[in-house]
């Protein structure tokens, strides 16, 4: 109670006076831009200007936040109770908070956290309230607004709600963009939004969405503000509340609808231990400095959304996601998950992996990760860290008689024996939970892993040939991992440097040659990418079948899952990750980018047309593995 009722003395941007909800909404609805769009829509649709204005008012009412300190205090009290039950500790970097406090007073600030759990949503407001920093307004999905009572509490805690599918609704786009831009121009509160757009179901960084990013940058591009400051925020969990739910969603189980009843039913999670949570506020970045020489603001005013501006927005969005990755803290469990997934599935489910072997390999991998610049959460004796980590993740693995086994869900009483297909799905759920924690460490290893794979496939030592293949792999996996646009050469050089650093290769100007001492590292890095390569091959195989020509996403996902299940049962496929719907969607996006699949709108649902020759060609290149 003392924390919730404490005095709150923030220092806003240039001493900006508080702006009430009514004042903010009025400024948006009476803006010159919205008046212009309203008249244009009225002429196009034959409606009266008043009718369109009334519709705009309705959109504003549905969308707008109503931040009130009293509700922040209520949330502060509730979150203190919840966080104490869920986590042993919540760590925040004070250096990052101090620089944020300074940045907020100098220019409009955009807080850009990663999104891994529902817990992310108000934890930043909670921290800022604790340290007397102005509270953010937060972009949230409209389903949250529909939760009885909870939706209104979130609105009064600073959330404004955005529809998931806006499509070509011109008026909605106009109201939303003007609302966001007015908040930036006024600068009375920082803005918080998830650049990835959605919560990551794989705990891996997602390709950034650019719509919101463009809206927050436009006031700077148009010269309406002197600068905008971007702050990457990395939220890391030892254990994620929704780990089982996310794995089942990836296997085609529908996502539960956000509801107050669902929230109350989920209260049993409060009885579990989720370890620690780390929140890292990155260094504030000036858009003015980042865009120097990249964009001409005078030109932007003449030709809005011109290509250079769009490229700049994309570059900044990718940069922010990379900085989120670099700021995240990798848990010992992520390293263990990398190694557990490289063991044969029969070892994990039946024989058990030797504890001594897992311990030795994890300590070896810790050294490799530190050599590669990873930030690790490892603050105790090695044996204590290993045993406490496995105890925390007893829902995924259990340690018994010197061996580690994968935990499979317990079966409820059933009339019929479990079918082979159901057995596959059961193991897949456990594997995908394990994979999600491995994914949290992938950004550290992915560039050297791509080069290790290129060396393995091409059997070449020539730099130019390896670079060409490295570029191909990066293009193929562009929706799987985050690569900053136009940084191919730097990524390749970084990969070369890291492989040399761990003693895996020798470098000369023209060649990259293998070292005898680095085979363990190369083998680990190749195996790290193998599940992705195998999963992509399953999709290529399905698309190459004679009867597949035109399909929708709804048709292809279960069909590929069925094919993967058959291949696993026949012993031809060894990775259960091929059953993940997110991986399958990423393959489709990559094939569109490589022009092997074409997307077109034939009806309400988008359809895809396959260029079988192109798909087979890509598959053949990977087949050399």
From TrEMBL:
GO terms (BP aspect): ether lipid biosynthetic process; fatty acid metabolic process; phospholipid biosynthetic process; triglyceride biosynthetic process
Chief place of localization: membrane
InterPro entries from the UniProt entry: GPAT/DHAPAT, GPAT/DHAPAT_C, GPAT/DHAPAT_LPLAT, Plipid/glycerol_acylTrfase
Keywords of the record: Acyltransferase, Membrane, Transferase
Record's subcellular location: Membrane
Organism whose genome encodes this protein: Seriola dumerili
One Gene Ontology MF term: glycerol-3-phosphate O-acyltransferase activity
Protein's name according to its UniProt entry: Dihydroxyacetone phosphate acyltransferase-like
Annotated GO CC locations: mitochondrial membrane; peroxisomal membrane
Superkingdom of origin: Eukaryota
Lineage: Eukaryota, Metazoa, Chordata, Craniata, Vertebrata
The Phospholipid/glycerol acyltransferase domain, residue ranges: 109-238
Entry's family note: Belongs to the GPAT/DAPAT family.
Pathway connected to this protein: Phospholipid metabolism
